[in-house]
């Protein structure tokens, strides 16, 4: 427990230091397309994603960031209290074309280190009030090869399925885990290849005009990625995407299906055979004075009786550059609702409001507030406050 308190004190100290930095530094804008702007505009400020890779020499590039977070259950749930989370994520890539070899190839290797308390011990929710939380560990997170072949892309190796499937870009800054992956997937499948337990798999995608179709096949037990990887079960996903950009507006529609199965001898530990559907709708528009509005709607269904969470619905919006002179900041609000089976209450619902502020280039500070109704379908309503610090290393 002392190490969690130490991490908590470090977060508070770093936050206090950042808050007294000069205001002119807070409004500084890096030249070009910075990794911070890229993270604020498209990728979640979470451990699973790295900022844009930076070229080192020849075909080699690297990226790294450190994320810290305190999550405090202020009232309700199981018990009041605070936990701290510290995550480091680093990666290297090797582009074959830049190295003077063949075109379209890339090798990637990422490592992930986590030191964390468990917010669910305080809140008791099933959706996850923090997308940063995972059991403390140090592991190889990604080891992949990618090859572009005309309109098609092939990837294989150790990777997370959620990097490519069931992704909602306009929900990127919301911290509740359900906005990152629908809980009809994550809440029903303990053996899914996703953060922090990426798994061995292969996927392909074909992009034609405004359409993209992709399919993937992943091992069913990513906790043991190299021990009989597909002998214990597997998971298949397929998704079709529509993306249309006209003038200053962008519309995105996604429809996906998945099937998960285990050999009978492992089903009691790794989960049952089940399948489901998910859908995502997104809309983005450029507003006056450089602001950007984003809207999203998510849904998931897996009604089989073996599933704890048969249905899911999420919605929200974000505004980038809401305040004058703060073009990289993102304000976001969202609602997420997971229906529960065999519970005193029919559903767990969470409302979230958050603001991701670029304090200086490559450093973002994000306060967050969530109101969770019926956590776990059995606990009192919970008020949860979070404070995240995202530091990109260059």
From TrEMBL:
Which domain of life, per UniProt?
Bacteria
Keywords (A to Z) from UniProt = Signal
Keyword Signal included in the entry's annotation: yes
Q: Which GO terms describe its cellular component?
A: membrane
One GO biological process this protein is involved in is: carbohydrate transport
Pfam families reported in the protein's UniProt record: OprB (PF04966)
The name this protein carries in UniProt is Uncharacterized protein
- Gene source species: Acidithiobacillus ferrooxidans
Q: Which family does it belong to?
A: Belongs to the OprB family.
Q: Kindly indicate whether the keyword Signal belongs to this entry.
A: yes
Q: Which residues form the signal peptide?
A: 1-25
**Which segments does the entry list as coiled coil?**
none
Gene Ontology molecular-function annotations: porin activity
């Amino acid at each position: 427990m002392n190490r969690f308190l130490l991490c908590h004190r470090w977060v508070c100290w770093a936050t206090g230091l950042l808050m007294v930095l000069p205001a002119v530094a807070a409004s500084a804008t890096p030249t070009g397309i910075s990794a911070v702007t890229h993270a604020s505009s498209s990728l979640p400020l979470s451990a699973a994603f790295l900022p844009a890779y930076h070229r080192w020499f020849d075909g080699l590039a690297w990226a790294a960031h450190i994320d810290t977070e305190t999550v405090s259950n202020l009232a309700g749930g199981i018990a009041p209290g605070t936990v701290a989370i510290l995550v480091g994520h680093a990666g290297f890539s090797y582009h074959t074309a830049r190295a003077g070899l063949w075109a379209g190839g890339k090798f990637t290797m990422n490592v992930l280190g986590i030191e964390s308390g468990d917010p669910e011990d305080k809140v008791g929710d099933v959706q996850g009030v923090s997308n940063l939380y995972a059991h403390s560990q140090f592991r190889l997170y990604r080891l992949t090869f990618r090859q572009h072949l005309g309109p098609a892309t092939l990837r294989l190796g150790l990777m997370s399925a959620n990097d490519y499937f069931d992704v909602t870009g306009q929900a990127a800054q919301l911290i509740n885990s359900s906005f990152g992956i629908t809980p009809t997937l994550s809440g029903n499948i303990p053996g899914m290849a996703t953060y922090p337990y990426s798994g061995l798999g292969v996927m392909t995608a074909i992009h034609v005009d405004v359409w993209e179709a992709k399919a993937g096949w992943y091992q069913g037990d990513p906790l043991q990625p190299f021990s009989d990887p597909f002998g214990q079960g597997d998971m298949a996903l397929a998704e079709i995407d529509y993306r249309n950009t006209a003038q200053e507006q962008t519309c995105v529609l996604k429809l996906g299906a998945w099937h998960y199965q285990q050999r009978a001898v492992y089903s009691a530990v790794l989960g049952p055979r089940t399948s489901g559907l998910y859908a995502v709708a997104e809309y983005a528009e450029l507003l006056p004075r450089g602001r950007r509005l984003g809207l999203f709607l998510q849904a998931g269904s897996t009604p089989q009786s073996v599933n704890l969470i048969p249905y899911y619905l999420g919605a929200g919006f974000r505004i980038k550059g809401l305040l004058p002179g703060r073009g990289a900041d993102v304000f976001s609000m969202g609602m997420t609702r997971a229906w529960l089976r065999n519970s005193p209450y029919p559903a767990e619902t969470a409302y979230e409001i958050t603001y991701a502020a670029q304090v200086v280039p490559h450093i973002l500070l994000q306060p967050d507030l969530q109101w969770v109704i019926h956590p776990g379908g059995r606990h009192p309503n919970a008020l949860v406050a979070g404070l995240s610090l995202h530091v990109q290393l260059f």
